[in-house]
Amino acid sequence: MKFLHLLSNEASQSITLHCLNNAALSFVGTTHREKSRICFHGWNKQTFEKGTPLEPHVLQDECKIQDGSWHQSRFIFHTQESQQLPIVDIQEVPASQLDRQQHMEIGPVCFL
C-alpha cells in the first residue's frame, strides 16, 4: 500500500450502503430520531464525515425512504492525498433490527 501511495497523486473510492427501512443510514439531513451519524475512517486514520473538509460526495441518498423496499446511499471519496484511502473503518452504523436491514458494498480504490 505504501508503494501505491508514494506513486499516486490522488485516489478515489466508492461505498454503497444498501438499506431496508433504515433511515438512520441517511447521510444528507438529520432528524432528531437519528441516534448516530455515519463516519468513515481512511488509511491514515483521518475521518470523512458530513460537515467536515473531508465530507464524501453523496451521489444518492435514498435510505431515508421507509416503504418496505430496499434503497441505497452511494458515496464517492476523492482526494489528492492518496494516503487517505482506502476507507478502512465505518463507524456509527446502527445495528440491524428485525424490520430494518442493511449491508455495505465497498468499491476498489483507484490510485491515479
TrEMBL record:
Record-linked Pfam families: COLFI (PF01410)
Entries under InterPro entries matching the protein: Fib_collagen_C
Gene3D superfamilies given in the database record: 2.60.120.1000
Record keywords: Collagen, Secreted
Intracellular or extracellular location(s): Secreted
GO molecular function: extracellular matrix structural constituent
Residues covered by the Fibrillar collagen NC1 domain: 1-112
Cellular component aspect of the GO annotation: collagen trimer; extracellular region
Superkingdom to which the source organism belongs: Eukaryota
Protein name as catalogued: Fibrillar collagen NC1 domain-containing protein
Organism of derivation: Oryzias melastigma (Marine medaka)
